[in-house]
Amino acid sequence: MRFRLTPRETSFYDMFAASADNIVTGSKLLMELLGADASARAEIAERMRAAEHAGDDATHAIFHQLNSSFITPFDREDIYSLASSLDDIMDFMEEAVDLVVLYNVEELPKGVEQQIEVLARAAELTAEAMPHLRTMDNLTEYWIEVNRLENQADQIHRKLLAHLFNGKFDAMEVLKLKQIVDVLEEAADAFEHVANTVETIAVKES
């Protein structure tokens, strides 16, 4: 860790932790969606929408703090990138839930539960990692594991696409389901972007 002579604004750490905790909430709502019947999905979507709004508020708070702070704990562009990528995760998860409701999807294809399990694990790891930004300790295993999970998500996504295009689904249903699984894949990519940003920050601060 580089020695600094100037004080740093430390509230960023708490805000990043709050943002990541909110993502865990979103991942739990995704898990809840899997076991819900069609009548319960609209209510889950409402709670996911509220979580997404809370994520937006957390992101705006970070940006406001960034714009009003003379000294930041690490590079401004990295703070912006980290906050934006965390926000992207919530946006993608909320979009996936919203699409399930808007498209009146009766049954999600087999394999979506694996996608969501990967996202839930990545959310837990991200929430556990954010407090370590204060010291930059014990973060290597985090970004390695999230990158591994993203590779796993890629494999699941490819299998899902192969399943959707096997000729057993109606063409319109394929379009709907593909959009949902694609958005879940984007959420996995966003988790990797967060991990890569954390790795960049850690390297710069070492």
From TrEMBL:
Specify the superkingdom.
Answer: Bacteria
What InterPro entries does UniProt report for this protein, alphabetically? PhoU-like_sf, Put_Phosphate_transp_reg, UPF0111_domain
Its family?
A: Belongs to the UPF0111 family.
Q: Report the protein name in the record.
A: DUF47 family protein
Q: Which organism is it from?
A: Streptomyces venetus
What is this organism's lineage? Answer: Bacteria, Bacillati, Actinomycetota, Actinomycetes, Kitasatosporales
